[in-house]
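User: Condensation domain-containing protein, Williamsia limnetica:
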Amino acid sequence: MGQLLVGTRKALNVIITAMDWWTPDGGTLLEWHPTAHARRHAAAAPDDAGPLSFLQENHIRACHAARQSGVDHTAYLGSGTDVDGDLDSDALTRALRTFVLRHEGLRTWFDTDGVEVTRHLLDWEAVDFEVTVAGQFTESGQFREYLHGRFEREAVATSWPGFAFGAISRPGGFTLYYGCDHALSDGASQALALAEIAELYDSEITGNAPADFASAPTGSFLEYARLENHLAASCDPGSPAVVEWLDIFESHGGAMPGFPLDMGLEPGETAPVRPIELDLLDAGGIARFDRVCRDAGGTFLSGIYAAVAITEYELADRTDYFGISVLATRLLADFGMAQGWFCNFAPVAFPVAGAGAFTDLIPAALAGYTRAKRLAAVPAQSVIAALLGSGADPADVTASPNLLSYIDFRRFPGHGGQAYDRGVLFTGEGRTANASMWFNRDDDRLYLGSQTPDTTLAQLQIKRYHEHLWSVFDRVVVDGDYPVPGPQPTGVQGEQMRLP
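Assistant: Predicted structure for Condensation domain-containing protein:
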């Protein structure tokens, strides 16, 4: 059976993991902050009249409300990596400045009263950083406490910069880390960031030209926000893609999908996050699973959706699969290497009942995901407005859905490079009512990460779900298929059992 990982691990490939499972070696803590000159100019930076992206604007409002309620800030993304060689802090300072200048969104900060959100843009000439020594550490617990505190204070988009950057220096090598408010970053941005900074640093110390991904034009997130808003203005409730989105929503109960098993949480209730990591396939298993999917007329990703749909059919009698996929929107223009929040959400839906086996379900799963990619062109604000206009319950429309994401880390330009391959990615951990699944693939494995509610019943139900999902993958790899006999209402039933 696959192992539910709850401890630490060292990266052989770039991985998404839990923040507290990252345990870099000790050394001297270095921090980079804006110079006094840069801070003065940032504080006086004028309003920028352009629009924000929908996700960015709502995120900033939500963070403001959380702060007003005294909730700790955990709405950030982070990454870390290790680099060989003694650290040249002056060269790294120059590399950091070049990195920020390449990404216009990283020169922005925001203020809000909870309703209106105003963006400020720092002039590029004022961007400058300086390094300070913050002390030493030898115990991993010390570093965790330090990193949590720094990200909570500094990876906040309502001041500039909305990120925290630092290093751990030791003889013969150093660790880099970067934490950024989600308003300015996404998972792909984190996978790109430290690889780019390390490449720029290498250029500074060697005099060699940096690789294309660290020197080519990136596109601006501010331009992306303008394009998204322009696209939203062109969509109305009668637009074919919007109508299709609404039809899927209404035909699946008129509510966003949640975790299929009862986790014992009341509507609106959340619990502290407990991270889970589950290995699903090794390299050999990936190759066999991929071959089965392609022979059945699909793709590796359609196989993931088929396995998830079978699990939910057998455990929860969901005869139609309905999920929300996280999809990148970087191809709206040339934003492939840019830093920002380039994401949208789209429904993946297809029938499950009637499929006799995993391979029978592959074409439907492929069609469902292909449609989702097309519907992801509809901005989220257009969908939400149409849903509310149709009379849908606002609580159902705005509820945070259970999400599914897939990242193939082999496709990033830093793949094969030291800083990228040693990278770890993580997010802040607050509270949740979901058990969203982040499927990640690298050269050696397919694994699932999830931030789950840390309650007794939720953990029992999630363990049951994950073990069944693993068994579907395992059967497909071993036997070349998985028979689908129908729902199997066994095991812990939340509807019948609520634990204290």
